[in-house]
Amino acid sequence: MNIVQTEKGENLISIKMSVTKEDYAKRLDEILRGLRQKANMPGFRPGMVPMGMIKKMYGTQAKMEALNDIVSENLNKHITDNNLNLLGYPLNDPDQQPADLDKQDDMDFCFEAAIRPEVKVDLASMEIEAAKVLASEEEVNKTIDTIIERNPNIVHAETVGENDKLELKVCEAEDGKEVENGFKKSLFFHMDQIKDQASKDMLIGKEVGAEFIFNFAKALGSDEAAAKVLGEDAPADSDFNIIIDDATREEKPELNEEFFEKVFPGKGIKELDAFKAAVKEEMEKQYVNETDQILFNQMIEKLVSDVKFNLPDAFLKRWIVENGQNNITAEDVEANYESNYAKGLRWQIIEDAIVKDNMELVVKDEELRAFVLKQIFPGIDYATLDDEMKGRLDSIVNNMMKEEEQINNAKNQLADIKMTQFLKEHMKVTYKETTYEDYIESLKKANEAK
């Protein structure tokens, strides 16, 4: 077999494989013998059909299979032996004339292949402007109000209030007396669930430990609503004898050391100003996470625009269609090539070049495990856990690592995070301070301008 590689254009090569009968004869014989072993024809024992009949029936099919095997094997070998760094896989040359398998024993097979461009990225020369979102005093105060609302003090009351949560013992009753062997249950019940004001008034002011007759269907407005509270097996339309075991209510906490420790454990915050500063810091960290996603896209746009290299566009358009499994048409590719496909390919090439020169950007297994653990248990400090708890968490992560699709998504997320941080450190990023409200407004205007 003779293989000739020639330049066909910038970053595009032609690979011509001249195949003779001797190149595929052995493989063809193996295929025909295999077909003979499987052949089942009337008048012949299995495996004893004459080879002439096998060749007549399956010769062209077998020859095509043998040629495909030999050509594919040698094409892969040529790529490996010559260290060809390709974009995608070679395609049949569109200018090649189809071979006549019935008449030709020797034939040529021609392929086109795209060579991955050699790219050098000078990050230090690239300038980009980014938003640095600062939390205003008003935003900090609003966030503190939300924190207070989400972290109320739970108080055990002596008497029932109109917004309390009650713990009740419930017994089915008839004529003011408990029904022997009747429905019994302990349940939690919130005063906000009551629709009937008279029923609510009956409860308000009752002391913990009080015992009296109560009708849930009347209080909640329907038998169906009562059944949801009592359970489907309860006689929802019945009276019940109830005992109030506990009444708890939420109260606004004081902004003191106890509250500061609850919100920021281990930081030792003692004063309100320090608490506000900690809230502001956390808010601005979250703003960085949000703005980094936008900044990453802006940095990609900058790199794709400024790093110049040519692509074999005609080949790549054909390659996209052929690898689209009939889901992409040539018209779709033509309409979206520059804005979508070419941009994605350019960024992939640039990203690969950056990673090649900076191997610390490759996501390591231990980094991925730590990232997955943080995603599942964001508030846990793994290093402080005992061995038993670490073992439990490791088991959960191990199971998660078996989910290929989820792990690939997590790996891509982590790779983007690492790349974002790397680009921020190596490009000339000028930060412009702004408020969150102004930042969101600027994004809206940018989207409207597109």
Written overview of the protein:
The chain is an alpha+beta fold. Helix content is 50%, strand content 20%. Strands 6, 7, 8, 9, 10 and 11 form a six-stranded antiparallel β-sheet that branches. Strands 1-2-4-3 form a four-stranded antiparallel β-sheet. Helix 1 packs across helix 2 and helix 11 packs across helix 12. The chain is extended and about 105 Å long. The protein starts with a strand and ends with a helix. The model has no long low-confidence stretch (mean pLDDT 92).
The coarse silhouette is: extended
Give start-end ranges of low-pLDDT stretches: none
Task: Please report the number of helical segments.
Answer: 14
Rg, please?
Answer: 37 Å
Features:
four-stranded antiparallel beta sheet; 50% helix; six-stranded antiparallel beta sheet; 12 strands; 450 residues; single chain; alpha+beta
